[in-house]
Amino acid sequence: MNSTIPTFKNDPVLVLVLGFITCGLYLIYWNIKTAEVLNAVAEKEVISQPVAIFAGCCFPVNLYFYYLAGKEGLPKLYEKLGQPNNDQSTLLLILGFFFPMVSAMIVQGEINKLYK
Predict the structure, then answer these.
(1) What does the pLDDT look like over 10-27, one tens digit per residue?
(2) Which of 34, 43, 78, 86 is deepest in the core (most CB within 10 A)?
(3) Largest CA distance in the chain
């Protein structure tokens, strides 16, 4: 693991539960931390801070956040882990539309693979 990648390891179920308990407010914090990790993994700005913040509270922006995470962030993560690329952008986009907390849970599960 590269020491410049911030540590953000949470249980994916905890992301789901905290998302429901806080009525989605936890997802603002989660989006910011996830953007930091994905940007560090990609070694460029994949998801900007404003997009991460507004994705937690504005509906159409969260779809863009999950699209960027699935299309640009996670492929770089798989590359760093030496795993085959698995394009999850469509899945994250659809789940982000109906159940954003479930999309967050999936992304967190993928990020946790960095810390094993």
Answers:
(1) 999 999 999 999 988 999
(2) 34
(3) 36
Cβ-based burial of 98 (10 A; exposed 0-12, middle 13-18, buried ≥19): exposed
Q: Quick one: how far is CA 59 from the chain centroid? A: 16
The encoded tokens of residue 73 equal 């962030």
What pTM does this model have?
A: 0.91
Length of the chain: 116
Structure tokens at 24: 């989605």
Tens of pLDDT, residue by residue over 34-77, are 999 999 999 999 999 999 999 988 888 999 999 999 999 999 99
Structure tokens at 16: 């789901």
Each residue of 48-74: b (16+ CB within 10 Å) or e? eeebbbbbbeeeebbbbbbebbbbbbb
**19 is written with which tokens?**
């998302």
